[in-house]
C-alpha cells in the first residue's frame, strides 16, 4: 500500500527491467528541466485560509463540456504495455472509475477505438509526415467518441534522452504503435548506442509542423481542440488565434528541450495572456493533490498526471493511485479552507528560494 504517489516509482522499480524504468523516468539532455519541474512545484507555497466552515469540499468541475469528478486527466503516454500487459485498457478503466478523462496517445499500444470504448477519452495527436494519416486519425478519434483532440506541438524531433541512448532502448515485439500499424517501424530494431524509439519518431513525425497546420487541423476537427506544449505567452495567444479551445502548459515532463522553464513557472503568464475564457491545463511534474491545488491557484483549469500513474500501472495499483490523489486533493482543500475549486484561485501564492539538487 502506497502512502503517496511518489511511492509507486519505488515499488515499480523492483518490477520493471532497468531499460523500461529509464524510458519512463528519464528526461532529455542533462535532465535539468526534469528536475526543475519538481523544484519549482516544491518551492511554490500557498497561504491557507482558516475557519472556512468547510466539511466536504467539492472537487468536481466542468471542462470543455465534460463533467469531471476531479480537475485531473490522465496524461497521454506512449506504449503502456511496456508496464503491464493490459496497458492502456487498465489505466483507462481506472480513469473511468475515477470520473476523469483518459487521454489516448497516438503511440498507444492498443488501438484508440478499443480504449475509447472503455472510458470517456480525449485523443492526443502527434503531427505525422503523412497528412492523410493525420486526417485518418482525427476521423477515427471522432468516430470512436473522443470528446476532445489534443495536438502536441513540442516534438518536431524527439529530445535526446541519454538514458535510452545508453540502454540502446528498443520496444519488445509484443509492444507496437497500434494506431500506426501500417507504418514501417524502426522501434523494434536494436542499434547499439541509439534509441530505436527515437529513430521511429524521426521517420514518422513532421518537424516542419507550423501554425498553418494547426489552422488546417482546426478546420477539420469537429470536437474541442487543445494545443499541448505551450510555454511562451506569445505562442499561447497565437494558438487561440489559430482556433484552439484550450491550452496545455507543458515541457513534456522534461523530455524535450532541456533548459526549458518548469511548467508551473510558465503557467501564470500564459493564463494572463489568454484570459479566463480559455481553459489552461498544467502538465509536467504533478505528483500530489497539493500540486493540483497549486496549479489551480495559479489559474489552471485542471492538470494532467502522467508518470505516477505509469508506475502504479506497473504494480497493478492504478485505482489505488487515483483514489489516493482524490483523497490528497480533498485534504489539501480542507486544510487550505476551500469549499470548492473556485475558491482555490483566491489563495495567496509565494515562493521559497530552494535550489535544485541532484
From TrEMBL:
Keyword Metal-binding: no
Single GO term (MF): FMN binding
Pfam families: FMN_dh
Residue positions binding glyoxylate: 126, 161, 252, 255
Cofactor: FMN
Chain residues that bind FMN: 76-78, 105, 124, 152, 228, 250, 283-287, 306-307
Keyword Oxidoreductase attached: yes
SUPFAM superfamilies: FMN-linked oxidoreductases
InterPro entries per UniProt: Aldolase_TIM, Alpha-hydoxy_acid_DH_FMN, FMN-dep_DH, FMN_HAD, FMN_hydac_DH_AS
Gene3D superfamilies linked to this entry: Aldolase class I
Recorded superkingdom: Bacteria
FMN hydroxy acid dehydrogenase domain ranges (all copies): 1-354
Catalytic site: 252
PROSITE patterns according to UniProt: FMN_HYDROXY_ACID_DH_1, FMN_HYDROXY_ACID_DH_2
Assigned keywords, A-Z: Flavoprotein, FMN, Oxidoreductase
PANTHER family: 2-HYDROXYACID OXIDASE 1, S -2-HYDROXY-ACID OXIDASE-RELATED
Entry similarity comment: Belongs to the FMN-dependent alpha-hydroxy acid dehydrogenase family.
Protein name: Alpha-hydroxy-acid oxidizing protein
Organism whose genome encodes this protein: Kribbella capetownensis
Amino acid at each position: 500500500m502506497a502512502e503517496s504517489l511518489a511511492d509507486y516509482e519505488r515499488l515499480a522499480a523492483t518490477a520493471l527491467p532497468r531499460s523500461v524504468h529509464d524510458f519512463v523516468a528519464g528526461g532529455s539532455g542533462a535532465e535539468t528541466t526534469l528536475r526543475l519541474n519538481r523544484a519549482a512545484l516544491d518551492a511554490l507555497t500557498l497561504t491557507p485560509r482558516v475557519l472556512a466552515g468547510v466539511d466536504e469540499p467539492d472537487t468536481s468541475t466542468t471542462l470543455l463540456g465534460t463533467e469531471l469528478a476531479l480537475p485531473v486527466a490522465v496524461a497521454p503516454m506512449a506504449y503502456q504495455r511496456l508496464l503491464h500487459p493490459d496497458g492502456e485498457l487498465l489505466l483507462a478503466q481506472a480513469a473511468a472509475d475515477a470520473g476523469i478523462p483518459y487521454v489516448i496517445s497516438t503511440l498507444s499500444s492498443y488501438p484508440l477505438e478499443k480504449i475509447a470504448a472503455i472510458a470517456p477519452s480525449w485523443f492526443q495527436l502527434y503531427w505525422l509526415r503523412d497528412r492523410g494519416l493525420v486526417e485518418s486519425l482525427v476521423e477515427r478519434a471522432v468516430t470512436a467518441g473522443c470528446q476532445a483532440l489534443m495536438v502536441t506541438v513540442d516534438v518536431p524531433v524527439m529530445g535526446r534522452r541519454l538514458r535510452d541512448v545508453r540502454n540502446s532502448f528498443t520496444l519488445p515485439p509484443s509492444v507496437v504503435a497500434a494506431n500506426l500499424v501500417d507504418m514501417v517501424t524502426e522501434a523494434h530494431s536494436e542499434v547499439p548506442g541509439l534509441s530505436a524509439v527515437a529513430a521511429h519518431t524521426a521517420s514518422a513525425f513532421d518537424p516542419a509542423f507550423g501554425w498553418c497546420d494547426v489552422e488546417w487541423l482546426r478546420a477539420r476537427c469537429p470536437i474541442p481542440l487543445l494545443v499541448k506544449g505551450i510555454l511562451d505567452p506569445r505562442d499561447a495567444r497565437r494558438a487561440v488565434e489559430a482556433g484552439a479551445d484550450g491550452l496545455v502548459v507543458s515541457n513534456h515532463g522534461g523530455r524535450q528541450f532541456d533548459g526549458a522553464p518548469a511548467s508551473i513557472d510558465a503557467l501564470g503568464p500564459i493564463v494572463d495572456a489568454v484570459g479566463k475564457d480559455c481553459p489552461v491545463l498544467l502538465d509536467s511534474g504533478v505528483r500530489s493533490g497539493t500540486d493540483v491545488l497549486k496549479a489551480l491557484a495559479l489559474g489552471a483549469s485542471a492538470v494532467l498526471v502522467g508518470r505516477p500513474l505509469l508506475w502504479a500501472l506497473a504494480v497493478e495499483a492504478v485505482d489505488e493511485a487515483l483514489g489516493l490523489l482524490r483523497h490528497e486533493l480533498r485534504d489539501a482543500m480542507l486544510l487550505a479552507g476551500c469549499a470548492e475549486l473556485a475558491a482555490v484561485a483566491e489563495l495567496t501564492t509565494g515562493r521559497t528560494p530552494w535550489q535544485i539538487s541532484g
